[in-house]
Amino acid sequence: MNLLNAKQVFIPFLEFSPPYFESNTQELKKKYEAQNVVELWNNRTISSILQQILFYYETGLLQKNEAEIILKELRELIKYVEEKTESNPKFQLYENELMHLSNDIFFHHPQQSLFAIPTNMFGYILVNDPKTCKETYNYFEHQIKNSKSLNTSGNRDRKIFFNKMFEQIEHLKQKL
Q: For residues 50 and 55, what is the distance between their CA atoms, to the nearest angstrom?
């Protein structure tokens, strides 16, 4: 975050511990897990994360062991998503080869929907205009029709998809 400010003060990665981070994260995770969720990914979904790790490592803001910790946790997260794709009917994951680095979020509810568009690394513009939300919903539905369900496509396709991400993580680990 300090890269965006004129005054750059960096806290070493291993010393970073925001107050109540763990309890807030667990509460948010519980709420998220209870929802019906549809996500569109491709094999480059994690590229932004990997690029940030490499940037901070090359600039000396992350030590090798710290970067390896983050990569290990990223691998665990991807493994968790893979398992969830196989076992959680409330979580639907689609592979869409044409959508890259879209962090748009769309909350759909029959009475009122909300479209969240990222403005920068830390903020979103929230749109609840019915016409815009309807168009967004239609677009999202169209993208799903042009995507492959990783929940129903079978173990082979799912393994190929997630193995590409694991390979990217391993490649960066070797590069460090």
A: 9
